[in-house]
């Protein structure tokens, strides 16, 4: 929300008459960079916790299968971290290059979380290296504990980045006097009113994505007849994490959506495809806004008010009450939002069916149709995460900093950014191909019986766990 000491009349929000040459390439490049990097960031948040669970099981129950899983997952984590370091570095330069109007004006406000994120990155890298090197060289329980700062650093670094985005949706911690940003309070900006819910949504979403992706890998192995303990445990642990996340995410998203009704009514109107203020508001499934009219939707009476406003009568504010200059692209926002909600609902129902069947004594991992669904669930979780971010970011338009700085004013006038966009596409395509080749090669060698594969930051071979006592 805006600081109470800075009335809207003092904010510099003039709409530019000419679109700067750097606006479109900046949008395209930022979308590709963030959309690509966010998947790796999810692994940095969730994977260390999953590795901790299987590693601890291996120590407590003297389970070599669990220890083998922990070692393999750590090597995969190292590969993803190495690639993520490249994409993260690209992003750190893009903020200033693509959005000079944002960083030039609000750099003092945003500097603190970006600095903390950089420190978290180094802590995560250090302890990942210690963990990889520590196999067979450290006492087992001390070795296990090195995962804790690695996991904490990944979570805190993500919190710092999310705090910046939450601030863009809920700007506070500054005043604007005579067009200049002054009286900056970085801590207030970092811990803004929207940060906790938005971070919780992303944190749970990371476990949902990684849980379904990793369990899907082992579901594919089970489909091919690899029904050993390695594949059963490799499926069970991430699927359990995905279950908790899939069931918690709709609740967190609902609470977050209730807040959007008061902080960004135009975004909620786009989510719900509410062209007019209806009391009570229906839930519109599908549909598009064409020539000012909603077409092709399935309307369920009353349900819109219940879901979006926790009320039987309170309406969703219609888009026709929002000035035209302040309206987001409605159709993109609506489709992205409903895709996210639809996929999330499907995944939540799937895990409920699995555990209900298990409670009744039926193991769905013996059913090929369910394993096929689990293979597809990973890509679906990725799509849901991407759609959620599209809904959030496109729904905030035309503002970069909501109510304060328009996106057209945040971009620069450098038409040469199309060249950097092309370079970024080539770099990310190369990293995607490289990651696929490396991870496929590692999987083939593991299936062939090799265990001591080289990995970034680690020795070429390690002694058995506990041999370093």
Describe this structure in words.
- Helix 2 packs parallel to helix 8 (229-263).
- The chain contains 14 helices and 6 strands.
- The strands form 3 sheets. It has a two-stranded antiparallel sheet. A two-stranded antiparallel sheet has the order 3-4.
- The longest helix has 38 residues, at 23-60.
- Residues 1-17 and 456-464 have low confidence and may be disordered.
- A hairpin with a 2-residue loop joins strand 1 (175-177) and strand 2.
- It is globular.
- It folds into 2 domains: 21-192 and 416-469, no CATH class; 194-414, no CATH class.
- The chain is 67% helix and 6% strand.
- The chain is mainly alpha-helical and 469 residues long.
Keywords for this structure?
about 475 residues; mainly alpha; two-stranded antiparallel ribbon; 14 helices; 6 strands; globular; disordered N terminus
SSE diagram, text form:
Blueprint: H1 23-60, H2 64-98, H3 100-133, H4 140-145, H5 147-169, E1 175-177, E2 180-182, H6 186-190, H7 195-223, H8 229-263, H9 265-272, E3 283-290, E4 293-300, H10 303-309, H11 330-359, H12 368-396, E5 399-401, E6 405-406, H13 407-410, H14 417-447
Antiparallel strand pairs: 1-2, 3-4, 5-6
Helix pairs in contact: 1-2, 1-5, 1-7, 1-14, 2-3, 2-8, 2-14, 3-5, 5-7, 7-8, 7-12, 8-9, 8-11, 9-11, 9-12, 11-12
């Amino acid at each position: 929300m805006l600081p109470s000491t800075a009335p809207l009349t003092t904010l510099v929000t003039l709409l530019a008459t000419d679109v700067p040459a750097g606006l479109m390439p900046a949008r395209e490049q930022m979308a590709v960079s963030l959309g690509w990097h966010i998947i790796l960031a999810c692994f940095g948040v969730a994977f260390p916790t999953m590795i901790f669970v299987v590693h601890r099981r291996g120590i407590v129950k003297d389970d070599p299968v669990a220890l083998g899983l922990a070692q393999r997952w750590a090597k995969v984590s190292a590969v993803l971290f190495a690639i993520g370091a490249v994409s993260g570095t690209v992003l750190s330069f893009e903020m200033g290059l693509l959005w000079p109007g944002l960083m030039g004006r609000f750099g003092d406000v945003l500097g603190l979380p970006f600095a903390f994120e950089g420190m978290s990155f180094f802590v995560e890298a250090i302890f990942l290296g210690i963990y990889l090197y520590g196999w067979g060289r450290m006492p087992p329980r001390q070795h296990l504990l090195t995962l804790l700062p690695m996991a904490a650093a990944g979570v805190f670094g993500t919190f710092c980045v999310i705090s910046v985005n939450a601030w863009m949706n809920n700007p506070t911690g500054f005043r604007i006097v005579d067009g200049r940003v002054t009286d900056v309070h970085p801590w207030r900006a970092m811990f803004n009113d929207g940060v906790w819910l938005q971070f919780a949504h992303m944190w749970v979403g990371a476990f949902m994505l990684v849980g379904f992706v990793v369990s899907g890998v082992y579901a594919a192995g089970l489909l091919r007849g690899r029904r050993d303990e390695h594949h059963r445990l490799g499926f069970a642990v991430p699927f359990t994490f995905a279950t908790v996340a899939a069931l918690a995410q709709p609740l967190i998203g609902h609470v977050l959506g209730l807040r959007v009704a008061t902080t960004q009514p135009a975004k909620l109107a786009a989510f719900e495809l509410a062209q007019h203020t209806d009391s009570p508001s229906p839930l519109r499934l599908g549909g598009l806004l064409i020539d000012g009219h909603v077409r092709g939707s399935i309307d369920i009476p009353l349900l819109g008010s219940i879901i979006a406003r926790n009320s039987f009568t309170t309406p969703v504010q219609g888009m026709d009450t929002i000035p035209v200059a302040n309206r987001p692209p409605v159709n993109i926002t609506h489709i992205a939002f409903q895709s996210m909600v639809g996929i999330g609902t499907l995944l939540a129902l799937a895990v409920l069916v699995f555990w209900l069947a298990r409670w009744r004594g039926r193991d769905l991992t013996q059913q090929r149709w369910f394993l096929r669904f689990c293979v597809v669930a990973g890509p679906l979780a990725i799509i849901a995460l991407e759609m959620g971010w599209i809904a959030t970011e496109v729904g905030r338009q035309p503002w970069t900093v909501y109510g304060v700085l328009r996106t057209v004013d945040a971009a620069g006038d450098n038409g040469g950014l199309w060249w950097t966009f092309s370079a970024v596409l080539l770099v990310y395509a190369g990293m995607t191909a490289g990651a696929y080749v490396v991870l496929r090669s590692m999987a083939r060698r593991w299936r062939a019986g090799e265990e001591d594969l080289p990995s970034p930051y680690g020795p070429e071979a390690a002694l058995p766990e506990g041999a370093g006592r």
